[in-house]
Amino acid sequence: MRYLIIFTLLALFSCTACAGGQLRSLPDPAQDIPLAKTSARQTAVFAGGCFWGVQLVFQHVQGVVSATSGYAGGNADTAHYKIVSTGTTGHAESVQVVYDPSKVSYGQLLKIYFAVAHNPTELNRQGPDSGTQYRSEIFTTDAEQQHIAQAYIAQLDAAHVYPERIVTRVAALPGFYPAEAYHQNFATLHPYYPYIYINDRPKLEHLKEQFPQWYK
Q1: Which CATH number do you get for residue 62?
Q2: How many domains in the chain?
Q3: Which long-range contacts (CB under 8 A, 24 or more apart) does 151-154 make?
């Protein structure tokens, strides 16, 4: 009975990746980088709440070579979970996505990020988690990524895909610092951990349902 109560309470305060708990159909980015003829690895960094769920989503995207949980937005000396959790370091829980640009484009990764990885209309929080460390932010590695990300946010806002304005920030990546080993692959290793089962497993189901062509 105690565990049933815990699951019920978590369900009341949890949310899916989609704003308002609804699956939303997003347009393709009007501006994107065409699929490359080379498979030379590229990197993208996304923050969208607890990194467990964001990592889980991108680990199941075709063309993604690796997804690593970590911290971005602050300094190296404060890139530690207990300090980041205070919300005073400037870091956001983030995921570094290494991908094959001949199989998936940066714009397609953005579409998945906005559609299923998190709710881009929640300011400094995500579901049951609150604080600047759980903010929605895209950390870009060059001017081209920055331009595409900003253009896509403007495109989604203009299309009124969400009932509220997107609050996702776009900033140049100052550095990415991998999280502690026990955070890596947490959702995969602990699929029935209450937080994962309620908050993050639905994201994976939404990925499979909305983007079967990219699901692996």
Answers
A1: 3.30.1060.10
A2: 1
A3: 151/29, 151/30, 151/31, 152/29, 152/30, 152/31, 152/107, 152/110, 152/111, 152/114
Distance, CA of 114 to CA of 107 (rounded, Å) = 11
What residues make up the domain containing 112? Answer: 2-210
In this structure, what are the phi and psi dihedrals at residue 47, rounded to the nearest 5 degrees? -115, 130
Q: Specify the pLDDT at position 39.
A: 87
- Taking alpha carbons only, the member of 67, 22, 28, 33 closest to residue 213 is 28
User: Is 118 inside any structural domain?
Assistant: yes
Please report whether residue 216 resides in a domain.
Answer: no
pTM above 0.85, yes or no: yes
Side-chain-facing half-sphere of 186: CA atoms under 13 Å: 22
Closest CA to 76 of 84, 68, 67: 84
Give the SS3 label for residue 71: strand
Alpha-helical segments (H) within 113-200? 143-159, 186-189, 194-195
Active site residues: 50
Mean pLDDT split into 10-residue runs, the chain, 216 residues: 39 42 81 93 98 98 98 98 98 98 98 98 96 98 98 97 96 98 98 97 97 96
